[in-house]
Amino acid sequence: MVRKAGRARRLTVDGDSFFWSVGHDHQALGNGRYQDCRDTLSLRLARANGRLLITFPETSGTPPNLNRPGTARALLDEARAQGWQPARDPSRELDGWSLLEAAATRRTAAPNS
């Protein structure tokens, strides 16, 4: 089954529904050149106004596979462990590299991810 680009997916965590999507953005310089490339994971709690944008600038290395639900869940869990409150916080952006090690540990420990 082929997914439509940019379409949000649903992730249920402890009875709460989150919508998440994966993207890529950059600043176009012209002549086919770009800078500030980054992969992004956007998460928001259903019925909440705020969202969490987790970014992975390409200059820092190869990002994890953000298209896997288990990866999205591990990054969400780590952001919440570090204080993001999806029902209360307005939009927030976090550097994915700062979450990655703990999220990877969380993903490895979680069954069926």
Low-confidence stretches: none
General shape: globular
- As laid out across the biggest beta sheet, the strand order is 1-2-3-4-5
In angstroms, what separates the terminal alpha carbons?
20 Å
Domain count: the total is 1
How does the helix and strand content classify structurally?
Answer: alpha+beta
Helix content: 10-25%
Question: Which oligomerization state do the chains in this entry correspond to?
Answer: single chain
Tell me the fraction of residues in β-strands, as a range: 35-45%
Tally of separate helices: 2
Average pLDDT rating: 85
Number of strands: 5
Radius of gyration in whole Å, from Cα?
A: 14 Å
- Largest beta sheet, briefly? 5 strands, mixed
- Strand/helix succession: EEEEHEH
Description:
The protein has 113 residues and is an alpha+beta fold. The chain has one domain (9-109). Helix content is 24%, strand content 38%. Strands 1-2-3-4-5 form a 5-stranded mixed beta sheet. Helix 1 (69-81) crosses helix 2 (96-109). It is globular. The model has no long low-confidence stretch (mean pLDDT 85).
